[in-house]
Specification:
Layout: E1 2-4, E2 32-33, E3 36-37, H1 43-49, H2 86-103, E4 116-121, H3 124-137, H4 144-147, E5 150-153, H5 175-186, H6 188-193, H7 196-205, H8 216-229, H9 248-264, H10 268-291, E6 302-307, H11 309-318, E7 332-339, E8 349-355, E9 358-359, E10 370-371, H12 372-379, H13 384-391
Parallel strand pairs: 1-6, 4-5, 4-6
Antiparallel strand pairs: 1-7, 2-3, 7-8, 8-9, 8-10
Length: about 400
């Protein structure tokens, strides 16, 4: 299962525009959730966050944006840049609880030390999302921090597969150039210029200095995070200190552009190139080992990856699935391995793919499941020689 982190604060401090009604909270203690106050009525959940071992011997142990604690303080604790908010924490906790109801009955005697593998990018928001999810997903909450480790790897794509899976594909150094070339051919940048009037108007309205430090991504990150965090769209439009606010037409246009941009910026070929290491190490090869019965090197029955929207967007492209809008917070791809009829001499294995609970199995001619061999043929990563050549390795 591949899961996006929950609701977060803006990932940039520039430009310095804001609105007092946007009140981000990043602590957990004191949150009133379903008529319960975290840390008071359910101390076992609060204890489960303390001393949670986020690091694994497999990973380098580096955490982007500084240190981390999964015991994030009171509900009024201030937020950092790109932090998981209290709302995001609850999104992932609720998702874990939901999936426990869906999958828990399949694994009634799950051993959390051997049956589950968790990996995350090195961002605090993804690591905290993993912790929140596990608190909802694992029935034996008091022991979770003693039994489950979050394997951490740097970068937007996790490469911390289970032990025994060799890392044959290295990160692609030429990926940015490949993506820009492909986007140029698709006319992506020509479409981007159609929205430049919004950028100019925002810069003029807020009297911002036009410098390389103020990019499209800086402005859109401010708008999109507010748009996802607040329920009232009229309360999230940034305003100047003298009360001049972005008008609704401009705000709506920026949301629409950001939505289109996030869904379209990763063209299919570069998406497959970027996903090759992840698909090979964390999806295809572990499944092949399970099918082969290689329980000596791979005993996990559930593998969880906590990552970012860019990864889920690329998975849409790699699977040939339509993607018309930005991937929401706490979205997830589920890859379920099914075994054919037991009476067959050589059992056949199938995959069922779901996105946010909806069946989207690719290469299946509309069926719910697809033969794993057929799936692999269509999603097979670029062979190692071609990959190294394209990536300049």
């Amino acid at each position: 299962m591949i899961i996006r982190h929950g609701d977060r604060t803006p990932d940039t401090t520039k430009p310095e525009i804001g609105h007092p009604s946007v009140d981000y909270k990043c602590g957990v203690a004191g949150i009133v959730h379903r008529s319960e106050t975290w840390g008071a009525h359910r101390p076992n959940l609060w204890t489960g966050l303390k001393d949670f071992p986020p690091l694994s011997p497999v990973g380098p142990g580096n955490i982007r944006n500084g240190g981390l604690r999964l015991h994030p303080g009171s509900v009024n604790m201030t937020c950092g840049v790109g932090d998981l908010t209290a709302r995001g924490f609850l999104q992932l906790h609720n998702l874990g609880t939901l999936l426990q109801m869906s999958y828990g009955q399949l694994f009634p005697s799950m051993d959390m030390t051997t049956d589950i593998h968790v990996q995350s990018t090195d961002f605090r928001r993804t690591i905290r999302s993993a912790g929140a999810f596990l608190l909802g997903f694992v029935p034996n909450v008091p022991k979770i921090r003693e039994m489950v480790k979050i394997h951490i790897e740097p970068g937007g794509l996790s490469q911390a597969p289970p032990n025994g899976v060799p890392l044959t594909y290295k990160p692609c150094r030429n990926l940015r150039n490949v993506r820009e070339t492909e986007n140029e051919k698709r006319g992506y940048y020509a479409r981007e210029k159609d929205f430049h009037w919004m950028y100019d108007k925002v810069v003029d309205l807020f009297n911002l200095s036009v410098t390389p430090a103020i990019q499209w991504t800086d402005l859109f990150d401010k708008f999109v995070t507010r748009g996802c965090h607040a329920l009232d769209s009229h309360s999230i439009l940034p305003c100047t200190k003298d009360g001049v606010c972005i008008d609704c037409r401009l705000g709506r246009g920026m949301f629409e552009y950001a939505d289109w941009s996030m869904a379209s910026r990763y063209p299919p070929n570069s998406s497959l190139l970027a996903l090759t290491p992840f698909l090979k190490h964390s999806l295809l090869e572990p499944i092949e080992r399970i099918i082969a019965g290689d329980q000596s090197s791979l005993k996990y029955r559930i593998m969880l990856t906590f990552t970012h929207d860019s990864v889920l967007n690329r998975i849409f492209k790699a699977l040939g699935l339509p993607l018309k809008e930005w991937v929401p917070y706490a979205s997830r791809f589920s890859f379920e391995l099914w075994k054919g009829a037991p009476f067959m001499q050589t059992p056949t294995y199938y995959l069922r793919v779901l996105f946010n609970g909806k069946i989207v199995t690719p290469f299946s001619n509309g069926d719910e499941i697809v033969n794993f061999s057929k799936f692999k043929e269509n999603v097979v990563p670029v062979d190692l020689w071609a990959y190294n050549k394209l990536c300049g390795i």
